[in-house]
Amino acid sequence: MQTLQDVSRADIRTARARNYLIQLCRHFGHRIEATHSDNRGRIVFSAGVCDLNAEDPDILRAEMSASGEAELATLEDVIERHLKRFAFKEDLSVQWIRDA
């Protein structure tokens, strides 16, 4: 198993945090491992993992872990594009913060 060393996170303001968490997990769950329960979700990509948290009803937190910087950038892009597509009626702002 590969070591996941590169990490980033984003706190996305939305009144639909839990709905988007479920929608992301169900969408990706058709092709890869994705689970959710209550206000938490996890999507396991071949390049890394995305953990989702909607315990605050107005913030969807996405935490990414990947084996390298390029993989991390790819996963950030994939999650952001899908989330913005699902939230087309909102103007979501996604700012990824990388761990140093």
Explain this structure.
- The structure is a single chain.
- The model has no long low-confidence stretch (mean pLDDT 94).
- It contains 2 helices and 6 strands.
- 31% of the residues lie in helices and 34% in strands.
- With 100 residues, it is α+β, with helices and mostly antiparallel strands.
Give the structure's gist in a few sentences.
With 100 residues, the protein is an alpha+beta fold.
Which key features would you list for this structure?
2 helices; 100 residues; alpha+beta; 31% helix; six-stranded antiparallel β-sheet
Fraction of residues in β-strands: 25-35%
* Continuous helix count: 2
Low-confidence runs? none
Distance between the termini: 23 Å
Order of helices and strands: EHEEEEHE
| Helix share, percent | 25-40%
Strand order of the largest sheet: 2-3-4-5-1-6
Helix-strand category: alpha+beta
How many strands appear in the DSSP assignment? 6
Give the arrangement of secondary structure elements:
Layout: E1 6-13, H1 17-29, E2 33-37, E3 40-44, E4 48-53, E5 59-66, H2 69-86, E6 97-98
Antiparallel strand pairs: 1-5, 1-6, 2-3, 3-4, 4-5
